[in-house]
Design goal:
The chain is an alpha+beta fold and about 260 residues long. Among the domains are: about 70 residues, Ubiquitin-like (UB roll) (Roll); about 80 residues, Fumarate Reductase Iron-sulfur Protein, Chain B, domain 2, CATH 1.10.1060.10. The protein contains ten helices and five strands; from the N terminus they run E-E-H-E-E-E-H-H-H-H-H-H-H-H-H. It has a five-stranded mixed β-sheet, covered by helices on one side. A hairpin with a 6-residue loop joins strand 3 and strand 4. Helix 5 crosses helix 7. It is flat and about 65 Å long. The chain binds FE2/S2 (inorganic) cluster (FES). FE2/S2 (inorganic) cluster binds next to loops.
Length: about 260
């Protein structure tokens, strides 16, 4: 098959005038669908209704992993149904859930150490470094690299390497060692975020301001306003210009910052 086409704005495709249709095969059955649609939209066009296997429709939630193959192509491809555009004679199936092992733990009581992760997920040492996990990742996460980092005890590196994981589970589905890579990485990111990442000074400052009542009067004033008054101040608010350089704009009134 040709290089995968990705759409950047979810699956809100609008059919252009005279859009051509192409054949696709969903769980072995042939359907004619407009060639401009994502897999998710094409399946809905074909009559499927997503009660499970769809969430954000924007490439974030990981609910819509899909495995597919092209006619005459031995290779399996992996993508998100809400982000991948259909191609002629695509054979596809959805895998919205994978029954991978998920350890039970209380994040408040775990030590942020590799040993703790290894104890909760001892199967991590069944990894044979085949790299099928990375090949199956629709987000192009280097799964094997973060699993190796966890085995070597570098949780910070693993947290950063796995940051784009959307928990779809395709890595676990292809793993020869039967690891639940995405659950392991989620634990590591939780530990990293709670115990290892430096606290954000600006966030602490803002929370303290809120707790001190700095915004109470402002909020009370807004709550007393009518719908029309709220609409007026919303429309007249000072807005950040489009295409402004990062960090180069500040509003004239900074009293609420
Ligand atoms: S529906 Fe959320 S990633 Fe596709």
């Amino acid at each position: 098959m040709s290089a995968r086409k990705q759409v950047a704005t979810g699956d809100r495709a609008i059919l252009p005038e005279g859009a051509k249709t192409i054949p696709i095969f969903v769980m072995g059955k042939r359907y004619e669908v407009p060639e401009t649609l994502t897999i998710m939209k094409a399946m809905e066009y074909a009559g499927f209704k997503f009660l499970r296997g769809a969430g954000c429709r924007g490439g974030i939630c990981g609910a819509c992993p899909t495995v597919y193959r092209g006619e005459g192509d031995y290779k399996l491809y992996f993508g998100l149904a809400c982000q991948t555009v259909v191609e002629p004679n695509m054979f596809l199936a959805q895998i919205p859930f994978y029954p991978a092992n998920r350890a039970q733990y209380d994040i408040e009581t775990i030590e942020p150490l590799a040993d703790a992760v290894h104890a909760l997920y001892p199967e991590i040492f069944r990894c044979v470094a085949c790299n099928n996990c990375s090949k199956a990742c629709p987000m192009k996460v280097e799964v094997l690299d973060y699993i190796s980092a966890i085995k070597q005890g570098d949780l910070a590196r693993a947290a950063k390497l796995s940051f784009d994981c959307i928990q779809c589970g395709m890595c676990a589905g292809r793993c020869m060692g039967e690891l639940p890579q995405y659950h392991i990485a989620q634990l590591v990111r939780r530990l990293y975020g709670k115990y290892m990442q430096p606290g954000a000074a600006h966030l602490k400052k803002r929370v303290a301001e809120i707790e001190s009542g700095k915004y109470d009067a402002l909020l009370a004033g807004l709550q007393k306003m009518s719908h029309a008054e709220l609409e007026k101040i919303y429309k007249e608010r000072e807005r950040e210009p489009d295409m402004v350089g990062l960090g180069t704009w500040m509003p004239k009134d900074v009293s609420h910052l």
